[in-house]
Amino acid sequence: MAEKKQGFFKRLVEGLSKTRRNIVSGLESVFMGVSTIDEDFYEELEEVMIMGDLGVAVTEKILSELRERVEREHLLHPADCKGVIIEIIKDIMEMPDDAYDFEDGKSVVFVIGVNGVGKTTSIGKLASLYRDAGKRVLVAAADTFRAAAIDQLKEWSYRANVPIVAQSEGSDPAAVVFDAVNAFRARNMDMLIVDTAGRLHNKKNLMEELRKMDRILNTNIGDAARETWLVLDATTGQNALSQAKEFMDVAPVTGIVLTKMDGTAKGGMVIAIQTELGIPVKFIGVGEKLGDLQKFDPSDFVDALFADIRA
Predict the structure, then answer these.
(1) Where do the domains of the chain lie?
(2) DSSP string, 278-291
(3) Which helix (H) or strand (E) holds 305?
(4) Cα–Cα dist 39/25, whole Å
(5) Which of 49, 119, 129, 141 has a CB 3.0–4.6 Å from the CB of 231, allowing a cystine?
(6) What is the CATH number of domain 101-295?
(7) pTM for the complete prediction?
(8) Which of the pair, 45 or 247, is modelled with greater confidence?
């Protein structure tokens, strides 16, 4: 297990190379370009962080705490701030203690997100991850608006070696969920992962659809834990933050799944999402293979992001 985690950390370091060049190289230039900690120093740090997709609110929070630490610890040189900034980011990204409590018993997970973010692929990877952990996993193809989504989820369920409940294109998503819940109970499964439609252009329809599925679940799943995970494409940067806020208006999002971290220079948005929204990033993807989606470890993420700056 330790070897597997080490392998994923290595892929994370490699996957964050574009983000590292975008953020860390900018920070290094600030540390090397000024000799004193003054307002110019803070302004330059602010510019680098905002350009690195950390966002205004998070940048202000980091710099506010940095100013406090500089004064309290009597720091004199910009280079002394390197480790402090890393510590501050780790602190503000700390995961809540109950982030993975759903693993302790039976659970039902709604997976939501717009088309194209890697939602269906992520479900296949999540199913594989939890099957490998010894869970009896069932997936449900409740995105019935696209035949491709159903076929794709069938393929991923085959790869993950988990059963699937699916109907034909155009079927009522709530009917799929009803069948899936019955199968979940009858087969005594541990986890049900539900794919949902990837559209957000009509909030009223989406909300009504989620309400129907909620009613079915609440009536039939007993004391199983309920989770709603939003899949976001990391390459969209701050747009992902806006997308998350829209989905939070229509669904009680309990976790974020971030995909395509290996192809983006905008990985700083991870810090913005977890800090600004107060929703934990629970999983992070750095590739296309089944094992390339893993639990999000904030400390590992920050270490990987600042791998060069520590040298």
Answers:
(1) 2-92, 101-295
(2) ---EEEEE-SSSGG
(3) helix 298-305
(4) 20
(5) 119
(6) 3.40.50.300
(7) 0.88
(8) 45
